[in-house]
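Journal club side-thread
Mid-discussion, someone asked how the predicted structure for our own chain would compare to the paper's figures. Pasting it here so we can look after the session.
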Amino acid sequence: MDELDRYRYWGSVLVAIGMVLVVFVLQVVLVLPVKHLRDQQVAFEGFRYDLANGTAPVGQIGPDDLAIAPGTPVALLNVPGLGLENEVVFAGTTSDVTASGPGLRRDAVLPGQAGASVIVGRSSAFGAPFGVSSRCRSATPSPRRPAKARARTP
C-alpha cells in the first residue's frame, strides 16, 4: 500500500465518521423534538378523554387491582418559570417512557396526593422538558408571607 492509497483510505474513514456524526446531530436536533411533541399531543388528548370520562388513574393501582402500566398518562405539569405548559407526565421512569415526556417514579404518589411526587425528565434530548432547569440557581422555594399577613401602608 503506497502513501497515496493510505491517504485515500483514511480520508474515506474520516468522511464516513463525519457523515455518521451529521446524521446523529440531525436526529437529536430535528427528529427527536418532533417525536416528543407528537407523543405529548397524543397523550394530552388521551388524558383529557380519560379525565372527562372519569377513567384517569387516581393511584398507583388501577381499577383491575394491578399496577398502572408504564407510559400511562397520570398528570399534567405546568411550570411557568421553566416554560412548561400542559406537559403530560407518564407513569414510570424507563428510557422509553422519558422519551415521550417526564415520568413519575413508580414508588411515588401521584401529584396532588399526600406525600412526595418524584418526576424525572430529560434535560438534553427528546424535547428536553427540563432543559432549562439545569440553568436554575436553586430549587428551594423563596420565603413568602401568607396573603393575609401582608403589611398595609396607610
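Post-session note: The longest strand covers residues 84-91.
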